[in-house]
Amino acid sequence: MSEAKFVRRSLATLSAELAHLGHQACPSTVAELLRPLGYHLYVNVKRFTGPDHPDRDRQFRYLQEQIERFRDAGWPIISVDTKKKELIGDFKNPGRKRGLQPEQVNCHDFRQDAQYRAVPYGIYDVLANRGHVCVGLSADTPAFAVASIRAWWARLGCKRYAPFTELLILADAGGSNGCRPRLWKRQLQAFADYFGLVVTVGHYPTGASKWNPIEHRLFGPISINWSGEPLRDLPTMLGLLRGTTTATGLVVSATADRSCYPTQVKVTAAEMARLHLQRHEVCPQWNYTLRPHSMASCN
């Protein structure tokens, strides 16, 4: 045998090659011969995330301790992240849906043909099993991320958790709500000051975003709900978000944010020094608490 291995041969091709070698076997017979040997068609599985961070397991254990502490006290826990950005217009949406005929969409996904490039930022309320998606029409920045959390708290969280003044945020290590952007922390300080909240943030280790609860408890059901449905306009997108439910009782609300969020906003070291930020002893790069400079009531 040569070093070349042909593993993507169809059953018909394998049957023809066997016949050329003097072995008569129809494609069905080839399939029956391969099946007990364990040969099947597979797609690549994304599994390798690079070398594990030395504090990966330690951070996971600490996050679980934080979640249990807040859950036992009844304090709010939210999981946040930005879902895949979507082009609004006549564009193909992956998946299938039942209908009398297929939807006709553009042949190419050119951004200039879109009405908007929507940025869905999700907030998943872990204790209440409720989701909220703020659809931005500007850039995915830390300011937009905190504005979305602020809108959720003012609209829903403030009423649902009125007696409590502590909030736990579970976020990825990168992106607009990552552990490094200074603007994320500055905006969270303003959020904490305005509502009089003690905000604790726990970031999942690099490469471990799939363990963030929002990924499978909110974003997964949303993708299933609008599978194969072109997001032709903003009201359609918001309606599909609000129509997302699960057998476990998930309810989703959605709003649009038409504000403009500039990119590359610089936060000086002097501004960072004024933050009331306390890093935890365990994995301080991923865990910290922001306390309000002055208490404010939630109206």
What Rg is obtained from the alpha carbons, in whole angstroms? 25 Å
Number of DSSP-assigned strands: 9
What is the helix tally?
Answer: 8
Structural class: alpha/beta
Known CATH architecture of the largest domain: 2-Layer Sandwich
How would you classify the quaternary structure? single chain
Integer average pLDDT: 92
Biggest pleated sheet? 9 strands, mixed
What sort of overall outline do the alpha carbons produce when their principal axes are compared?
A: globular
Whole-Å distance between the termini?
77 Å
Beta strand %? 15-25%
pLDDT < 50 runs, ≥5 residues: none
What is the level 1 CATH name of the largest domain?
Answer: Alpha Beta
Number of domains: 2
User: Which fold name is given in CATH as the topology of the largest domain?
Assistant: Nucleotidyltransferase, domain 5
Q: What series of H and E elements makes up the topology?
A: HHHEEEEHEHEHHEHEE
The helix content, as a percent range, equals 25-40%
Overview of the molecule:
With 299 residues, the protein is α/β, with parallel strands linked by helices. It has two domains: 9-42, no CATH class; 56-290, Nucleotidyltransferase, domain 5 (2-Layer Sandwich), CATH 3.30.420. It has eight helices and nine strands. It has helices at 11-20, 27-34, 56-73, 142-160, 182-195, 213-225, 234-242, 269-273, and strands spanning 77-82, 86-88, 116-125, 130-136, 166-171, 198-203, 251-257, 277-279, 287-290. Strands 1, 2, 3, 4, 5, 6, 7, 8 and 9 form a nine-stranded mixed β-sheet that branches. Strand 3 and strand 4 (130-136) form a beta hairpin. The longest helix has 19 residues, at 142-160. It is globular, with a radius of gyration of 25 Å. It starts with 10 loop residues before the first helix and ends in a 9-residue tail after the last strand. The mean pLDDT is 92.
